[in-house]
Amino acid sequence: MQTSFRQYRSEAASHSHDDFHQIIIADLGMLELEIEGRGGCVSGRRLAFVPAGDTHAYRAVGMNRFLVLDVDTEVAAQTGLERLWHQAGASPYLEVVAGYAGHLTGLLQGLEQKRAISRIRRIAPDGQGNLQPENLSLLHMAGIATCESAFADDAFICQTLREVLGHSAAAQGRDADSGQGIPMRLQRLLAWIELRLSEPIGISEMAMITAQSESALFATFQRHLGTTPMRWLGEQRLQRAHAMLGDPKNTMTLGNIAREVGFTDQSAFSRAFSRRFGHAPIALRRGAATASDGSSYQS
């Protein structure tokens, strides 16, 4: 399986490939696509599955970065990826369930870390590509783990994609320029945030992504979303947690769910969740467990 991070130009281009499927996942920005005449886009939790042989045109506007996976057709059949894609509706555009967006983030981060280790190895002083102590120090300083079994080999990628495709549904194509009246720069920011709800995000970062001043960012949010940036961010975090807690297949502890949506304190998470939804997180989890015929969960 070939993997690469790519940036696309604003000029439209098109091509096709016969011997592999292509899966495109957004890391930053939005990619407009037309696959065999079906228009759509890749951003946030929305990914593209481009079947082998299908002609597709593409263009991006502004800052962008996408993970592109070239999956051999035989590998896709043997690993069940094609089957899961068909079960999800066989659309070239798929929307990942909110509670499973973290799988996309994990895949992006795992591959990025593997690339970082490869770069360090290329400059290894022993000439053999071995990770010497000075190399390990560089990785630790960059906040990169050194347990290579945790990084993305083909088995890891396929397993993650199975989870993602198994919790996806066909997405309707939409005009990326309209976005229900939301300007493109704000759409790019919302998609960027949606994949990073577990990370600390500040106003300055948001303003940088939209290429606006902080005061202009507040005005943009107020005009198009009727709220402030941080209130919108808090709502998305709580909605993600609600989706995860209501999923009977999700067995993460409450503490891990809290961290997954950006809370470092589980008590603070429980208070915010209770204020927003009128009941504690554990109540929703117990209700989901009861509805799924007695499945057991950690709390």
Low-confidence stretches: 138-152, 173-179, 294-299
The profile of the biggest β sheet is:
6 strands, antiparallel
Strand order across the largest sheet: 1-8-3-6-9-10
Tally of alpha and pi helices: 12
User: What is the total number of structural domains?
Assistant: 2
Average pLDDT reading: 81
- The N- to C-terminal Cα distance equals 38 Å
What is the gist of this entry?
The chain is an alpha+beta fold and 299 residues long. The protein has twelve helices and ten strands. The two termini are 38 Å apart.
What does this molecule look like?
The protein is an alpha+beta fold. The protein folds into two domains: 2-170, Jelly Rolls (Sandwich), CATH 2.60.120.10; 196-291, Arc Repressor Mutant, subunit A (Orthogonal Bundle), CATH 1.10.10.60. Helix content is 45%, strand content 17%. The protein has helices at 73-78, 81-87, 101-122, 133-141, 154-166, 184-194, 203-210, 214-225, 229-245, 254-260, 266-277, 281-291, and strands at residues 2-6, 13-15, 20-28, 31-35, 38-42, 46-50, 56-60, 65-72, 93-96, 168-170. The strands form two sheets. A six-stranded antiparallel sheet has the order 1-8-3-6-9-10. A four-stranded antiparallel sheet has the order 2-7-4-5, with no helix packed on it. Strand 4 and strand 5 form a beta hairpin. Helix 3 (101-122) runs antiparallel to helix 5. It is globular, with a radius of gyration of 20 Å.
